[in-house]
Amino acid sequence: MAQARGASSDRRKWIIGIAAVVVVAALVIGGVIWTIADRNKTEGQIIDPGRTTSSLAGDVTQKRDGVVVTVGKPGAKASIDVYADFLCPICGQFEKTYKSQIEQAINDGKLQVRYHMVPLLNDRSDPPGYSLDSANAALAAADAGKFLQFHDALFANQPEEGKRGYDKAQLIKLGQDVGITDPAFARTVDAGTYDQQLNAAFQQIENDPKLAQDFGNGQSGFGTPTVTANGAIVSWQDRGWLTKITG
What we know:
Elements: H1 2-39, E1 61-65, E2 68-72, E3 78-84, H2 89-107, E4 111-117, H3 130-143, H4 147-156, H5 168-177, H6 184-191, H7 195-206, E5 213-216, E6 219-221, E7 226-229, E8 232-233, H8 241-246
Parallel strand pairs: 3-4
Antiparallel strand pairs: 1-2, 2-4, 3-7, 5-6, 7-8
Helix pairs in contact: 3-4, 3-5, 3-6, 5-6
C-alpha cells in the first residue's frame, strides 16, 4: 500500500509539473504574440487625415526649398525654424501644445515657419527607416501644396518610438486622403527622391554648433525638437516664447 501511495503521489507531482510547464509555455507564447502585435500595431492601419481642409488662411503659402518647407504669408514680421522628427515623442508633444498658437500667428501674418524634418531617429523604429521615409513623404506633400496637412496628420497619429512606423503605401494613402491627386507624389515617396538631400542636410545640422544644446550630465549636441529665431535657440518650454517672438 505504501508503494502504491508513493507511486500515486509521484504521478500527481508529475502531472502538476507538466501542467505548470504548459501554463508557463502558454504565458510565454501569449506574451510573445502580444509583444509582436503591439510592436506592429500600425501595420495595415489607415492614417487618419483629420481635417482635409487646413484652417490656414487662403493667402498662406507652403513652399519647399531644398529640404526646408516655409509656411506663412509674405512679409511676416517674424520667423522661426523648427527642427523635428516624425517619430520623436517630444516633437509630438511640442506640436500638441503649440500647433494652434503657431497656426494663428501664421494666419495673422505675424509669423513664417521654416520646417526642417530630420531623420534623427531613423534607426529607432522597427523596422528602421520610418523617420527618413516620413520626412521624404512630407517634402513630396509640400510639392503638392499639402505639407502642413500631411505633417499634422502624422503627428496626430504618431507611432511609438521603438515600434513599427508607417510604410510607404500607408504614407501614399495619407497623401491621397489629404487631397493630393498628382501621381508624382506616390512616385516620390516610393523612390525616396529626397533621401540623399535629407541625410546630407541632417549631417550639417548635427555638426552645427549653433544648434547644439546642453542636455546635462556633460552631454550636449543636437536634439529634437529644436526651435530657433534670429539664429538663436529658443526655449520653447517657456509658454510665452511665441508671444515674445511675434510681439
